[in-house]
Each structure stands twice: as structure tokens, then as C-alpha cells.
Amino acid sequence: MRTSSNPAFRNLPGGQGGGYATFDRQGGAMGGAAYADAQAAQVGYGRAGGGERALTIDDVVTKTAISAGSALVAGVLTAVSGLTFLVLPAFIVGLVVSLVLIFKPHLAKAPLVLTYSIAMGVVLGGITQVFESIYPGIATQAIIGTAGVFVGMLVVYKTGAVKVTPRFTKWLMGALIGVTVLMLANLVAGLFGANLGLRDGSWLAILFSIVVIGVAAFSLLLDFDQADQAIRSGAPAHFAWYIAFGLMTTLVWLYIEILRLLSYLRQD
């Protein structure tokens, strides 16, 4: 079974299907039943039963839309009100909740997932407000860009233009580790007064930001595939909240990187 670059999705109960991600609700469900039961037991979820219906794509779309909408509203209110002092406490709340959900996925219900979404919305709103004061209009561009990438990768996934295979997963995981190491190296170097040129707005910084955005975008394919496996393996409907949380973590990362790239491109 493939694993996602998103830590949240590594705990999803998966089926036996793979290849093209189609968000198919039927294929592979019977063949992956025993495996899904074993995986679900590890994370505290069983397959749909006891009167609860099985997870569907509509559940995933609805819960993800609610989570993203909550983050957007919180971000806009933070930016408009100028309450940027809430960014640090909101970040701490979001970090703690994300760790809880990653290691205790059975707690992924509406209250915690929406708490994470709202907290990160406040963080993104505060950051965006700062960028918007320097580069007017950049917030709208970043939001449109993030939505465009999300929709574009979903189309790529559904049409099978890119296969989510074990080889693709290994390549993407390697790329993820690579950019993470480089970002940490750049951070450490900055603490000692050195400049690796990865975040200073130079041509190298622009190139690096594009690469990071690419990695984040392709990570969405793995996220979609993991959600697809959960649907086909018969996970319970309330599991949609956990999937929404996983997608939100990727979207937050993607938005920040797009905002950063746009700021580089608008520097004089």
C-alpha cells in the first residue's frame, strides 16, 4: 500500500486498489475488506457498520469545503481586523491540535478539525495581512492560485493523467525530504548569519519556491489517493473529517509557498 507524504494520511485505512485515482465508491471494496479491517483497528476506526453508512466522496467534499471555508473566514476576519497578535497563540493551538489528530486519529471529529482549520486560518490571515500591506492584491492572487492548483491536481488525479504508483510515491517522498532538509539548512544557516539564497527573493529563491510548490501540489495526488482508498475500503462516514484535516495541512503549506513566491515576483 502506498503512503502519503502528508503525515495525517499515513493512518488512513486503505484498500487494495491503486493506479489511477478515480474516487470510485465501489471498486476494490470487497477485495480489501480484511486488510481495511486490520488497518482500521490500528487507528481506532472500524469499517462502516452498526447502522452507520460507508464513507462517500460527497462526505469528503462537504467536510473539506467546511474546513477550508472556516479557515478562509477566520483568515479574512483576522486580516481585516488587524488582530495579528493572535497569530502566535493560534499557531500554537493549530500545532497542538494537528499533533493530537495525527497520533490520535479517532479523535478527528468536527470540533477538533474545525479548531485546527480556524486556528490556521488566523495564522494565514495574519501573515497575509502583512504581505498585503506591502504588496496590495497579493492575498487575492494567492487564494486564487491555491484554489487553482487544488482543482488542477484533482482533475489530473481523476483523469489518470498521472498514475499514483509506488515509484511515483518514492520519488515524491524523496523530493519532500530533500526540500525539507534544504529549508532546515537555510534556517540554521540564517541563525548563524549565513545566507544560502533560498529565501531572499533572488532567482535561486524563486526557483526553490517553484520546486516546493510543485512538491506540495503533487502531494495532493497522494492525499487524493489515500482518501480514495478509504472510500473503497468501506471506512465509516465520520472518517471524512480526518480526510478533511489531512487535505487542509497540505493546502496550508501550499498557500504559504504560493504567497511567498508571489512576494518574490513583486519585489523591485
From TrEMBL:
Residues spanning the membrane: 79-103, 110-131, 137-159, 171-192, 204-224, 236-256
The keyword Secreted is assigned to this record: no
Keywords: Membrane, Transmembrane, Transmembrane helix
Tagged with keyword tRNA-binding: no
Name the record gives this protein: Bax inhibitor-1/YccA family protein
Natural source organism: Pseudonocardia aurantiaca
